[in-house]
Amino acid sequence: MPGPDGWDDDVDSDVPFRPMSISEMLDGAIAGVRRRPRTTLGLAFTVSTVLQVTSSIVAYFFIGDDARDEVTPGMVMKSLGAQATLAVIGLVLSAYGILLMSGLIAPILGRELMGLPIPPGQAWRDARPRLGRLAATAAVVMGTSLIALLLPTVPFFLLVAADAHPALEVMTAILGFPIGVALMVWLYILLVQAVPAVVLERQTVFGALRRARTLSRGRWLRTCGTLLLALLVTVFMGFFALRIPFLVVQFLFFGAHPDGGAAVAALALDTIGRIVSWSVVLPFDAGVIALLYMDRRMRREGLDLDLRTRGRSAAAVSALGEAGPGAAGTGFIELWRPGPVTARPGNGVGR
Fold first, then answer.
1. Count of domains forming the chain
2. Would 309 be classed as within a structural domain?
3. For 210-232, what is each residue's pLDDT tens digit?
4. Model confidence over 43-58: pLDDT tens digits?
5. Is residue 151 very low, low, confident or very high in pLDDT (cuts 50, 70, 90)?
6. How many whole angstroms separate alpha carbon 16 and alpha carbon 108?
7. With CB atoms 3.0 to 4.6 Å apart as the test, which of 42, 115, 127, 198 could cross-link to 137 if both were Cys?
8. Considering the domain boundaries, does residue 266 fall inside one?
């Protein structure tokens, strides 16, 4: 039913303007892509193309002709090491792309959440003033997580370099790597909501990181579970359902070990496959991160109740469009400015 200010929660919107369940956040991310395919997939295609082409260029020059042609044990180990390094680089670039996309898609889902119209180019106008801070925030989140992964493994690599006793190397590896993975996951979940915050709240980089820690407090496990489910969907769609056709065609036309011009063609086909698959899955993962941020704003700070209390309805913000697109964008951003915390009846603040 419409509220006292005439704001109807669910009119023409697949994303409810209230605290959401995990399934609603996953469905909302898909609905955001379905309702705005040109905008969301266009942004995802741009981000994916830049990242995957960069990854392919690095792959071609990193492995080298010797590692591709030689089959001696030394060259095989060199090739395996190069492939593992490239896989890690690809995963880091893909994770960075998801963070970037979550900031770019946040205004789209934010307007969808509040029932606001999304004119052509409006999402870009909402995100453009904070592109630099968005890139920096995503880099800080990724960099902090990677440092947390690497620091506990430093003793292991030092012992290997010093040719220490194998028992010490094994002991430091058994302790260091699990601790590093746990720290990486913990910090990533703790800070990931900084990316939508830097765009929607117009925060500084460190202000957005502080906001992320505040919003994540008391809900780390729920956030982790939601992102884990999104990751499972991404792995299935991105690495299997969408990539397999390209891999089959690559194997049929170029074989398992292409060389010369065939290797370049196979790499180009593989790059196209990665661009297509990630263009589809990036908006989903990014949308889940953006909706997690919005859900936490409503659960912890009562954003939806606060807007109703202040009479800040979707219709009132839409009316700012009469003053020009810049004013409409300003009105939308003002809705996300942190204000006094509104207690949610029956749940309490911070639930």
1. 1
2. no
3. 999 999 888 888 899 999 998 88
4. 888 888 988 888 878 7
5. very high
6. 14
7. 198
8. yes
